[in-house]
Structures are given as C-alpha cells and as structure tokens.
Amino acid sequence: MRWSDFESADCPIARALSILGDRWTLMILRDCFFGVQRFDGFQANLGISRTILRDRLAHLVNAGILVQRPYQDRPVRYDYLLSAKGKALNSVMLMLGEWGRTAVDGQPETQVRHRHQTCGHVLTPYVACAACGEEVLAKDVRATRAA
Amino acid sequence: MRWSDFESADCPIARALSILGDRWTLMILRDCFFGVQRFDGFQANLGISRTILRDRLAHLVNAGILVQRPYQDRPVRYDYLLSAKGKALNSVMLMLGEWGRTAVDGQPETQVRHRHQTCGHVLTPYVACAACGEEVLAKDVRATRAA
DNA sequence: ATAGTCAGTCCATAAGTTAAACCCACTTAA
DNA sequence: TTAAGTGGGTTTAACTTATGGACTGACTAT
User: Fold this and answer.
1) Is the pTM of this model over 0.85?
2) Residue B110's closest chain A neighbor by CA?
3) Which residue among A27, A43, B29, B95 is least packed, with the fewest CB closer than 10 Å?
C-alpha cells in the first residue's frame, strides 16, 4: 500500500497521519510551536539533513499548515509560520507532550513544560467533551460513523 | 543525527516521537484503539509489509505500549493489547482525529467519529487545563522548564 | 489428503535519508 | 576590493529502511 492512499481514508486519524506521520514532520512542527521560524533554526535544532528539511517544509506549506513570509529580498528568504490550520495542532502537541512526560521514562526535573497563561499554572492538559465538559476517558469512547 | 538521540531529550514531545514518530507506529496504534488485536488484522487493515509489522509490534511491546496475550498454544499466537501506557495515548488519538476531521479536507459524511458513552453525544474533544478547567488555546501556552 | 489459518523468515529490489561538496546572491569586516 | 559570512538551494553517492513475493512451520477444518 502506498502511504498517500490514506489521504482519502474515512478515518480522520489516518488522514492526519498521511500528512504528519513521517519521521520528521511532527518534530519540525514542535519547533514551530517553540518559536523556530527559519530554515537554519530547524536545521540546527533537529540535525535534519537539508534535503529532507526542504522537502518537509515545502510539504507543510503545500498542505497549508505553514505559511511563508518573506523577511528579506535579494535573495528572498522566508520565515515559516504556523497558519490557523497549523496552530490547531497545538492540542495534539500538548497531549503528545503529556504522554511523553508521564509515560516515557526520563529525568522529569529537566523537562520542558508548558505554562497556562490565563491561570498561571504549569499546564497539565486533559481531553474534555464539548457536549458535557467532562474529562474523556479511553473506556468511554466508541468509534462510530458520523450521523 | 540519529533518531534514537531524541529518546533522552529534555522535551517530552521529542521523547514521545522517538517512540511513535515513524511511518507506521501511530497507524498500528489507531487500529488497536479500533479493536484490532492480531497480526493478520493489522496486515489486512493497513497493507503494511509483514517484516515491518513484525518490527513495529516488537518495538511497541518492548516499549511497554502493547502487551502480548497468548490466545492459543501449538503454535503460540498472541493478541496484541494496549497496556495502560498504550491506553494513555487515547487523548493523542482523539486530538489527532479531531484535527484530521476539521483541518484536512474530505467527505465529512462518511467519516469515522467517536461517541462519548457517558453523555451520549458524538464526541468533539478539546484540551482543558487541569488547574483551571478552561479550554487551552494555543495563544495561552508558553514553553518553560519544570520547576 | 488438501486446503486454509496465522504467523515468522528470507531475499532482491525499491524508496527514503544522509553527509559532503558545491553553487548562489547577497552583506559585512578588513 | 578582497575575503569571509549568511541563509539558503542543488547534486551526488553512500547508506539505511521498506517493500512484495516466496517459502516455512505448526497446526485446524473439510
């Protein structure tokens, strides 16, 4: 099976992963959320090869997740910024980080955390249901078809 | 840079992705959440090659995300079940699906959704802050070091 | 006996990733 | 005005991973 076949899958997770599911894309986006904007920044941070970085950035721009903003002419150079679609991935990043923090072994003291500006606390994110406002537990969800 | 270098990164997202960040692992886990338990099931569903499926399952078992439970002897065959650590990925899956559903184009009618059993509604998940209970928006979080 | 199930393994090819070198259009320091 | 630096882009060859197909093994059902 070709990976791009998942683009048109009925499952939104498969569709998301058809865009995000390779080795580097989510790492690049993580850097975006931490404020990295330029080719060189990603390269230095990730140690990714330039060829692949070029591909991935082009792909993300193409998918509408990042937008390019020129910050100089002659030659034109771009900042890579998160679009609305890209910023919408913040929730995924937060939960991924929460899982990494609680489920993967490591030295918790040195870890990067997030702070919730509106209440001032270090953020412990959880997933809630928009209909009832309660925390969503794995045992309480069932897959279904949209009505 | 070698990918495994991220295992010990200070960033929990990088650590999570060092385990989950390849082409197939998250797709396999998605299937787990949809109830797939056996080698053949993953294979049929994903069209993944057996060699890679073998590797990925072994890796997930090794990482403590899946556990093997024998369902027959002679020869021994295993179900692959989500451990507590695996089930904790539910939040990531839900937010990934929500992003795929709202941000990636497709035919919404045919899409797989989740239903929240406790309130009966089709689930629209969002991320909330454990400290204040409010929805967490991208603009309200800042990266920091753990205190 | 014969075919089917449910993997696990091996292999040659195909695809993806990498580092290194080189190019380009400038800008800044000497 | 020459030299070095910046912020990339391109090419190439080596290396690593993934793939599909065939083969094996230990059973089970017909």
Assistant:
1) yes
2) A10
3) A43
